[in-house]
Amino acid sequence: MAATSLPIAPVNHAGLPLPDIYARVSRHVPAIEWPALADDVAAILELKKTRNAVILAHNYQAPEIFHTVADIVGDSLALAREAVTVDADVIVLAGVHFMAETAKLLNPGKTVLIPDMRAGCSLADSITAADVRGLREKYPGVPIVTYVNTSAAVKAESDLCCTSGNAVDVVRSLNAPRVLMIPDEFLAQNVQSLVPEVEILTWAGHCEVHEQFTPADIHAVRESYPGVTVIAHPECPPDVVAESDFSGSTAMMMNFVTEKRPRQVVLVTECSMGDNIAAANPDIEFIKPCNLCPHMKRMSLKNIRNALETLTHEVTVEPDLADRARLAVERMLAVRPR
Ligand code: 13P
Ligand code: SF4
After folding, report:
1. pLDDT higher than threshold 70 for residue 11
2. Residue 123 Cβ < 6 Å to ligand 2
3. Same domain, 75 and 136
4. Ligand 1 atom closest to the CA of 293, numbered from 1
5. Does the pTM exceed 0.85?
Protein backbone atom coordinates (compact mmCIF):
# COMPACT_ATOMS: atom_id res chain seq x y z
CA MET A 1 0.00 0.00 0.00
CA ALA A 2 1.73 3.14 -1.16
CA ALA A 3 1.16 6.55 0.32
CA THR A 4 -1.10 8.58 -1.90
CA SER A 5 -1.67 12.23 -2.60
CA LEU A 6 -4.94 13.91 -1.71
CA PRO A 7 -7.78 12.43 -3.73
CA ILE A 8 -9.50 15.74 -4.13
CA ALA A 9 -7.62 19.02 -4.47
CA PRO A 10 -7.48 20.88 -1.16
CA VAL A 11 -10.52 23.13 -1.09
CA ASN A 12 -10.72 26.76 -0.19
CA HIS A 13 -14.15 28.29 -0.19
CA ALA A 14 -13.21 31.84 0.70
CA GLY A 15 -14.93 34.14 -1.76
CA LEU A 16 -17.28 31.49 -3.20
CA PRO A 17 -20.94 32.70 -3.07
CA LEU A 18 -23.14 30.63 -0.73
CA PRO A 19 -25.47 29.35 -3.52
CA ASP A 20 -22.39 27.90 -5.25
CA ILE A 21 -21.40 26.24 -2.00
CA TYR A 22 -24.92 24.83 -1.66
CA ALA A 23 -24.60 23.23 -5.10
CA ARG A 24 -21.83 21.06 -3.62
CA VAL A 25 -24.09 19.57 -0.94
CA SER A 26 -27.55 19.77 -2.51
CA ARG A 27 -27.70 15.96 -2.88
CA HIS A 28 -27.37 15.55 0.88
CA VAL A 29 -28.82 18.71 2.42
CA PRO A 30 -32.52 19.43 1.70
CA ALA A 31 -33.05 23.03 0.47
CA ILE A 32 -35.26 23.75 3.48
CA GLU A 33 -32.36 23.01 5.88
CA TRP A 34 -29.79 25.06 3.99
CA PRO A 35 -30.58 28.59 5.32
CA ALA A 36 -29.76 27.51 8.89
CA LEU A 37 -26.54 25.79 7.78
CA ALA A 38 -25.61 28.66 5.44
CA ASP A 39 -25.58 31.01 8.42
CA ASP A 40 -22.95 28.80 10.12
CA VAL A 41 -20.99 28.36 6.88
CA ALA A 42 -20.83 32.14 6.30
CA ALA A 43 -19.78 32.73 9.92
CA ILE A 44 -17.06 30.05 9.72
CA LEU A 45 -15.66 31.43 6.46
CA GLU A 46 -15.42 34.87 8.08
CA LEU A 47 -13.97 33.53 11.35
CA LYS A 48 -11.26 31.65 9.45
CA LYS A 49 -10.05 34.98 8.11
CA THR A 50 -10.16 36.87 11.41
CA ARG A 51 -8.55 34.02 13.36
CA ASN A 52 -6.07 33.16 10.58
CA ALA A 53 -7.33 29.59 10.87
CA VAL A 54 -7.50 26.53 8.64
CA ILE A 55 -9.82 23.56 8.90
CA LEU A 56 -8.41 20.08 8.34
CA ALA A 57 -11.21 17.57 7.73
CA HIS A 58 -11.03 13.78 7.57
CA ASN A 59 -12.67 11.94 4.67
CA TYR A 60 -15.40 10.66 7.05
CA GLN A 61 -16.73 14.13 7.79
CA ALA A 62 -20.31 14.83 6.74
CA PRO A 63 -20.67 16.48 3.29
CA GLU A 64 -21.83 19.78 4.80
CA ILE A 65 -18.42 20.06 6.50
CA PHE A 66 -16.26 18.31 3.89
CA HIS A 67 -17.59 20.35 0.95
CA THR A 68 -18.24 23.75 2.51
CA VAL A 69 -15.70 24.89 5.11
CA ALA A 70 -12.76 22.45 4.96
CA ASP A 71 -9.46 23.83 3.63
CA ILE A 72 -7.70 20.47 3.51
CA VAL A 73 -9.36 17.06 3.28
CA GLY A 74 -7.78 13.61 3.32
CA ASP A 75 -6.94 10.40 5.12
CA SER A 76 -4.92 10.29 8.37
CA LEU A 77 -1.63 10.26 6.48
CA ALA A 78 -2.51 13.23 4.28
CA LEU A 79 -3.80 15.20 7.27
CA ALA A 80 -0.54 14.53 9.15
CA ARG A 81 1.51 15.49 6.08
CA GLU A 82 -0.51 18.64 5.41
CA ALA A 83 -0.39 19.64 9.08
CA VAL A 84 3.35 20.16 8.70
CA THR A 85 2.88 22.70 5.90
CA VAL A 86 -0.04 24.67 7.32
CA ASP A 87 0.54 28.43 7.38
CA ALA A 88 -1.95 29.64 10.00
CA ASP A 89 -2.17 30.53 13.69
CA VAL A 90 -5.06 28.19 14.40
CA ILE A 91 -5.83 24.67 13.15
CA VAL A 92 -9.33 23.26 13.62
CA LEU A 93 -9.37 19.49 13.26
CA ALA A 94 -12.71 18.19 12.01
CA GLY A 95 -12.09 14.55 12.83
CA VAL A 96 -11.20 12.69 16.01
CA HIS A 97 -8.95 13.47 18.95
CA PHE A 98 -5.88 11.48 17.88
CA MET A 99 -5.83 13.42 14.59
CA ALA A 100 -5.87 16.73 16.48
CA GLU A 101 -3.10 15.49 18.76
CA THR A 102 -1.00 14.51 15.75
CA ALA A 103 -1.53 17.98 14.26
CA LYS A 104 -0.45 19.50 17.59
CA LEU A 105 2.67 17.31 17.76
CA LEU A 106 3.69 18.59 14.34
CA ASN A 107 2.74 22.22 15.15
CA PRO A 108 3.76 22.80 18.76
CA GLY A 109 3.62 26.59 18.32
CA LYS A 110 0.10 26.70 16.85
CA THR A 111 -3.29 26.59 18.53
CA VAL A 112 -4.96 23.29 17.64
CA LEU A 113 -8.68 23.01 18.33
CA ILE A 114 -11.14 20.15 18.25
CA PRO A 115 -14.81 21.15 18.23
CA ASP A 116 -15.83 18.30 20.58
CA MET A 117 -13.35 16.74 23.00
CA ARG A 118 -15.44 13.56 23.20
CA ALA A 119 -14.56 12.61 19.61
CA GLY A 120 -12.46 9.56 20.47
CA CYS A 121 -11.71 6.26 18.71
CA SER A 122 -12.21 2.66 19.84
CA LEU A 123 -8.70 1.80 18.64
CA ALA A 124 -7.09 4.65 20.58
CA ASP A 125 -9.04 3.51 23.67
CA SER A 126 -7.87 -0.09 23.33
CA ILE A 127 -4.29 0.43 24.53
CA THR A 128 -2.36 2.48 27.12
CA ALA A 129 1.26 3.59 27.43
CA ALA A 130 1.70 1.01 30.25
CA ASP A 131 0.50 -1.73 27.87
CA VAL A 132 3.17 -0.72 25.35
CA ARG A 133 5.86 -0.75 28.05
CA GLY A 134 4.67 -4.25 28.97
CA LEU A 135 5.04 -5.39 25.35
CA ARG A 136 8.52 -3.85 25.18
CA GLU A 137 9.53 -5.96 28.20
CA LYS A 138 7.92 -9.10 26.85
CA TYR A 139 9.46 -8.76 23.37
CA PRO A 140 12.87 -7.10 23.87
CA GLY A 141 14.43 -5.85 20.65
CA VAL A 142 11.25 -6.18 18.58
CA PRO A 143 10.42 -2.83 16.92
CA ILE A 144 7.04 -1.38 17.89
CA VAL A 145 4.94 0.21 15.15
CA THR A 146 1.95 2.10 16.50
CA TYR A 147 -1.06 2.92 14.36
CA VAL A 148 -1.71 6.69 14.35
CA ASN A 149 -5.12 5.91 15.85
CA THR A 150 -3.57 6.09 19.34
CA SER A 151 -2.92 8.66 22.05
CA ALA A 152 0.29 10.71 22.12
CA ALA A 153 1.25 8.77 25.28
CA VAL A 154 1.13 5.50 23.34
CA LYS A 155 3.00 6.98 20.37
CA ALA A 156 5.69 8.20 22.78
CA GLU A 157 6.40 4.58 23.83
CA SER A 158 6.71 3.29 20.28
CA ASP A 159 9.50 3.31 17.69
CA LEU A 160 7.46 4.76 14.86
CA CYS A 161 3.90 5.17 13.67
CA CYS A 162 2.00 4.04 10.61
CA THR A 163 -1.36 4.71 8.99
CA SER A 164 -3.43 2.38 6.86
CA GLY A 165 -1.94 4.24 3.87
CA ASN A 166 1.69 3.35 4.60
CA ALA A 167 1.65 0.37 6.99
CA VAL A 168 3.27 -2.02 4.51
CA ASP A 169 6.04 0.45 3.65
CA VAL A 170 6.67 1.16 7.34
CA VAL A 171 7.01 -2.55 8.20
CA ARG A 172 9.31 -3.19 5.23
CA SER A 173 11.43 -0.12 6.10
CA LEU A 174 12.44 -1.77 9.39
CA ASN A 175 14.19 -4.77 7.77
CA ALA A 176 13.38 -6.76 10.93
CA PRO A 177 12.31 -10.41 11.13
CA ARG A 178 9.63 -9.63 13.74
CA VAL A 179 7.56 -6.47 14.25
CA LEU A 180 4.91 -5.53 16.78
CA MET A 181 2.08 -3.68 15.03
CA ILE A 182 -0.41 -2.31 17.54
CA PRO A 183 -3.23 -1.87 18.46
CA ASP A 184 -5.32 -2.79 15.37
CA GLU A 185 -5.36 -6.57 15.15
CA PHE A 186 -7.12 -6.62 11.78
CA LEU A 187 -4.82 -4.05 10.15
CA ALA A 188 -1.85 -6.08 11.41
CA GLN A 189 -3.30 -9.31 10.00
CA ASN A 190 -4.06 -7.63 6.67
CA VAL A 191 -0.51 -6.28 6.48
CA GLN A 192 0.83 -9.73 7.46
CA SER A 193 -0.73 -11.23 4.33
CA LEU A 194 1.14 -8.66 2.18
CA VAL A 195 4.48 -9.00 4.01
CA PRO A 196 4.80 -12.74 4.67
CA GLU A 197 8.58 -12.50 5.19
CA VAL A 198 8.08 -10.60 8.47
CA GLU A 199 6.41 -12.09 11.56
CA ILE A 200 3.86 -9.51 12.76
CA LEU A 201 2.72 -9.62 16.37
CA THR A 202 -0.26 -7.54 17.38
CA TRP A 203 -2.84 -6.47 20.00
CA ALA A 204 -6.56 -7.12 20.29
CA GLY A 205 -7.80 -3.62 19.40
CA HIS A 206 -10.56 -3.16 16.81
CA CYS A 207 -12.35 -0.34 15.06
CA GLU A 208 -15.94 -0.43 16.25
CA VAL A 209 -17.17 0.55 12.77
CA HIS A 210 -15.14 -1.81 10.58
CA GLU A 211 -15.27 -4.87 12.85
CA GLN A 212 -19.00 -5.11 12.13
CA PHE A 213 -18.56 -6.07 8.48
CA THR A 214 -18.67 -9.80 7.67
CA PRO A 215 -17.99 -11.94 4.58
CA ALA A 216 -21.74 -12.66 4.52
CA ASP A 217 -22.33 -8.91 3.94
CA ILE A 218 -20.04 -9.02 0.92
CA HIS A 219 -21.68 -12.19 -0.44
CA ALA A 220 -25.10 -10.56 -0.05
CA VAL A 221 -24.07 -7.41 -1.89
CA ARG A 222 -22.44 -9.43 -4.71
CA GLU A 223 -25.62 -11.47 -5.07
CA SER A 224 -27.84 -8.37 -5.23
CA TYR A 225 -25.49 -6.44 -7.54
CA PRO A 226 -23.69 -8.89 -9.87
CA GLY A 227 -20.42 -7.37 -11.12
CA VAL A 228 -20.21 -4.82 -8.28
CA THR A 229 -16.71 -3.69 -7.24
CA VAL A 230 -16.09 -4.14 -3.51
CA ILE A 231 -13.50 -1.95 -1.77
CA ALA A 232 -12.72 -2.48 1.91
CA HIS A 233 -10.75 -0.48 4.47
CA PRO A 234 -7.90 -2.54 6.03
CA GLU A 235 -9.43 -2.04 9.50
CA CYS A 236 -12.00 -4.65 8.35
CA PRO A 237 -11.49 -8.29 9.41
CA PRO A 238 -9.13 -10.21 7.06
CA ASP A 239 -11.93 -12.47 5.81
CA VAL A 240 -13.79 -9.36 4.64
CA VAL A 241 -10.69 -7.92 2.94
CA ALA A 242 -10.13 -11.34 1.29
CA GLU A 243 -13.61 -11.12 -0.28
CA SER A 244 -12.96 -7.62 -1.63
CA ASP A 245 -11.50 -6.41 -4.92
CA PHE A 246 -9.27 -3.75 -3.36
CA SER A 247 -8.24 -2.60 0.11
CA GLY A 248 -6.57 0.63 1.17
CA SER A 249 -6.79 3.76 3.29
CA THR A 250 -9.72 6.14 2.80
CA ALA A 251 -7.68 8.22 0.32
CA MET A 252 -6.56 5.09 -1.53
CA MET A 253 -10.19 3.95 -1.78
CA MET A 254 -11.17 7.33 -3.22
CA ASN A 255 -8.28 7.26 -5.68
CA PHE A 256 -9.16 3.73 -6.76
CA VAL A 257 -12.73 4.77 -7.53
CA THR A 258 -11.79 7.93 -9.42
CA GLU A 259 -9.11 6.14 -11.45
CA LYS A 260 -10.81 2.79 -12.20
CA ARG A 261 -14.34 4.21 -12.46
CA PRO A 262 -16.28 1.03 -11.64
CA ARG A 263 -19.94 1.16 -12.75
CA GLN A 264 -21.18 0.11 -9.30
CA VAL A 265 -19.12 0.20 -6.17
CA VAL A 266 -19.56 -0.61 -2.51
CA LEU A 267 -17.21 1.12 -0.09
CA VAL A 268 -16.90 -1.14 2.95
CA THR A 269 -16.17 1.64 5.41
CA GLU A 270 -17.77 4.64 7.10
CA CYS A 271 -20.87 5.93 5.38
CA SER A 272 -19.87 9.52 4.60
CA MET A 273 -17.03 8.45 2.30
CA GLY A 274 -19.43 7.55 -0.51
CA ASP A 275 -21.42 10.76 0.01
CA ASN A 276 -18.30 12.86 -0.26
CA ILE A 277 -17.21 11.50 -3.63
CA ALA A 278 -20.62 10.75 -5.16
CA ALA A 279 -21.26 14.30 -6.44
CA ALA A 280 -18.00 14.42 -8.42
CA ASN A 281 -18.67 10.96 -9.89
CA PRO A 282 -22.27 10.99 -11.17
CA ASP A 283 -21.63 8.05 -13.53
CA ILE A 284 -20.73 5.72 -10.64
CA GLU A 285 -23.43 4.09 -8.51
CA PHE A 286 -22.43 3.99 -4.84
CA ILE A 287 -24.07 1.19 -2.90
CA LYS A 288 -23.81 2.18 0.73
CA PRO A 289 -23.36 0.00 3.77
CA CYS A 290 -24.38 2.68 6.24
CA ASN A 291 -22.08 2.31 9.22
CA LEU A 292 -21.43 5.64 10.88
CA CYS A 293 -18.51 6.42 13.19
CA PRO A 294 -20.15 8.05 16.24
CA HIS A 295 -16.91 9.87 17.06
CA MET A 296 -16.45 11.41 13.61
CA LYS A 297 -20.10 12.41 13.66
CA ARG A 298 -19.62 14.55 16.77
CA MET A 299 -18.37 17.26 14.42
CA SER A 300 -20.94 19.76 13.16
CA LEU A 301 -20.96 23.20 11.54
CA LYS A 302 -22.34 24.53 14.84
CA ASN A 303 -19.47 23.25 16.97
CA ILE A 304 -16.84 24.20 14.36
CA ARG A 305 -18.24 27.74 14.47
CA ASN A 306 -18.17 27.67 18.28
CA ALA A 307 -14.56 26.41 18.25
CA LEU A 308 -13.50 29.39 16.14
CA GLU A 309 -15.57 31.91 18.11
CA THR A 310 -14.35 30.79 21.53
CA LEU A 311 -11.00 29.20 20.59
CA THR A 312 -12.01 25.95 22.27
CA HIS A 313 -11.31 23.10 22.82
CA GLU A 314 -7.59 23.43 22.72
CA VAL A 315 -5.57 20.21 22.30
CA THR A 316 -2.30 20.23 24.21
CA VAL A 317 0.42 17.64 24.79
CA GLU A 318 2.89 17.83 27.66
CA PRO A 319 6.27 18.89 26.10
CA ASP A 320 8.45 15.89 27.15
CA LEU A 321 5.87 13.42 25.99
CA ALA A 322 5.26 15.46 22.82
CA ASP A 323 8.97 15.30 21.90
CA ARG A 324 8.97 11.48 22.09
CA ALA A 325 5.62 11.10 20.31
CA ARG A 326 6.67 13.55 17.57
CA LEU A 327 9.74 11.45 16.88
CA ALA A 328 7.54 8.43 16.17
CA VAL A 329 5.36 10.47 13.78
CA GLU A 330 8.34 12.07 12.05
CA ARG A 331 10.00 8.68 11.56
CA MET A 332 6.81 7.55 9.84
CA LEU A 333 6.72 10.64 7.60
CA ALA A 334 10.33 9.96 6.59
CA VAL A 335 9.46 6.44 5.26
CA ARG A 336 9.35 6.52 1.47
CA PRO A 337 7.04 4.23 -0.50
CA ARG A 338 8.93 1.28 -2.00
P1 13P B 1 -7.56 6.52 7.09
O2 13P B 1 -6.19 6.83 7.56
O3 13P B 1 -7.62 5.47 6.06
O4 13P B 1 -8.27 7.77 6.69
O5 13P B 1 -8.36 5.88 8.31
C6 13P B 1 -8.61 6.55 9.49
C7 13P B 1 -9.68 5.91 10.24
O8 13P B 1 -9.93 6.24 11.37
C9 13P B 1 -10.43 4.87 9.57
O10 13P B 1 -11.35 4.33 10.42
FE1 SF4 C 1 -11.68 5.09 15.17
FE2 SF4 C 1 -13.07 3.40 13.68
FE3 SF4 C 1 -14.03 5.84 14.09
FE4 SF4 C 1 -11.87 5.45 12.51
S5 SF4 C 1 -13.96 4.75 12.14
S6 SF4 C 1 -12.11 7.00 14.10
S7 SF4 C 1 -10.87 3.74 13.58
S8 SF4 C 1 -13.70 4.25 15.65
Report:
1. no
2. yes
3. no
4. 10
5. yes
**How many angstroms separate the CA atoms of 79 and 84, rounded?**
9
What is the number of domains present in the chain? 3
Question: Do the strands 111-113 and 246-247 form a parallel or antiparallel pair, or are they unpaired?
Answer: unpaired
Ligand 2 nearest-atom number relative to CA 293 = 3
CATH assignment of the domain containing 187: 3.40.50.10800
Please write the tens of the pLDDT for every residue from 152-164.
Answer: 999 999 999 999 9
Q: Is 136 contained in some domain? A: yes
CA–centroid distance, 119 to ligand 1, in Å, is 14
Mean pLDDT value across residues 177-204: 98
Domain ranges, residue 32? 4-119+296-310
pLDDT digits (tens, 9 = 90+) for 32-84: 999 999 999 999 999 999 999 999 999 999 999 999 999 999 999 999 889 88
